[in-house]
Amino acid sequence: MKLSGKEFDRAVKRAIDRIPEEIRLRLDNIVISVQPRPSRTIIRELALSSDDPPFGVYWGISLPERSETNPPLFPDTILIFQEPLENACQSLAELEEEIEITVVHEIAHFLGMTEEQLAALGYE
């Protein structure tokens, strides 16, 4: 499946709108950016394989790791990678579901949530 940049951005917005409000409220100070694919730097820094690229990553300092005396210098960012998501999905509905799951997982990294907490919310 292949969408234009604008179509993909609309799919991201629809996916985010589906996220439960209690989680979506945490997006207030997080930038969500769509990139075509993860950079070589991201793949290398996260020790990932370019053969199995991530759908998204959280870039920032999670809430449990923050210090009131030494706040983060940059805003927290969730990067969503269009090509890996499109390559993994067969339909727009499936794509939006994967985007939703990806954003929730990246918010969970920001919050310091466990996989069990995500599963309890239906995001396994």
What does this entry look like structurally?
The chain is 46% helix and 13% strand. The relative contact order is 0.21. The chain has a three-stranded mixed sheet. It has six helices and three strands; from the N terminus they run ααβαββααα. The model has no long low-confidence stretch (mean pLDDT 87). The chain has a single domain (5-65, 72-120), classed as Zincin-like, CATH 3.30.2010.20. The protein has 124 residues and is α+β, with helices and mostly antiparallel strands. The longest helix is centred in the last third of the chain and has 20 residues, at 92-111. The protein has helices at residues 5-18, 21-24, 40-45, 82-88, 92-111, 115-120, and strands spanning 30-35, 56-59, 76-81.
Key features of this structure:
124 residues; alpha+beta; Zincin-like; three-stranded mixed beta sheet; 6 helices; 46% helix; globular
CATH architecture: 2-Layer Sandwich
Helix content estimate: 40-55%
- The name CATH uses for the topology is Zincin-like
Assembly state of the chains shown: single chain
Strand order of the largest sheet: 1-3-2
**CATH class identity:** Alpha Beta
Could you say which overall geometry the principal axes of the C-alpha atoms support? globular
Radius of gyration: 15 Å
Model regions low in confidence, pLDDT < 50 over at least 5 residues: none
Strand content: 5-15%
Number of domains: 1
Number of helices: 6
Main pleated-sheet profile: 3 strands, mixed
> Would you count the extended β strands for me?
3
Mean pLDDT: 87
Order of helices and strands: HHEHEEHHH
